[in-house]
Amino acid sequence: MSRPTLTKLGQCAACGCTDEHACEGGCSWVDVDHTICSACLDPFIMTETDFEFRELLELEQCTRLLDVLAEELRERARVVEGLAVATDLRAIQLKMPEKADLIRQVRKGATA
Q1: Could you give the CA distance from residue 25 to residue 42 in angstroms, rounded to a whole number?
Q2: How far apart are CA 103 and CA 91, in angstroms?
Q3: CA 20 to 30 Å from 20, out of 9, 55, 95, 96?
Q4: Is the pLDDT of residue 46 over 70?
Q5: Cα–Cα distances in angstroms (integers) from residue 112 to residues 1, 14, 105, 106, 108, in the given order
Q6: What is the pTM of this model?
Q7: pLDDT band at residue 3, thresholds of 50, 70 and 90?
Q8: How many other CB atoms are there within 10 angstroms of residue 35's CB atom?
Q9: Phi, psi angles (nearest 5°) of residue 18
Q10: End-to-end CA distance of the chain
Q11: Residue 70 and residue 10: Cα distance in Å, rounded?
Q12: What pLDDT sits at residue 2?
């Protein structure tokens, strides 16, 4: 059985409803990309294809979440690294002020 393809964001891939034209009786988005509505994921009317599509959406959402978390960890590592450099620089300033100025000049040249 083939998997459904994702439609444009803001349109249900199963029934085609949008924010402007919801399903009769109302519906809401069940995924972050607004590609499947709650009416189409009703557990009482879901087909095998619907379940496969839901698994695909959940996998994509997990992948996006992992990407976001990985980027957040990278950013935190950059902050920690910056704090470590600042702490090292402060220690050098206290012990050898002339070397701290040299390090600052080298770092400015590296970022320019």
Answers
A1: 13
A2: 12
A3: 55
A4: no
A5: 56, 52, 11, 10, 6
A6: 0.35
A7: very low
A8: 21
A9: -135, 180
A10: 56
A11: 27
A12: 41
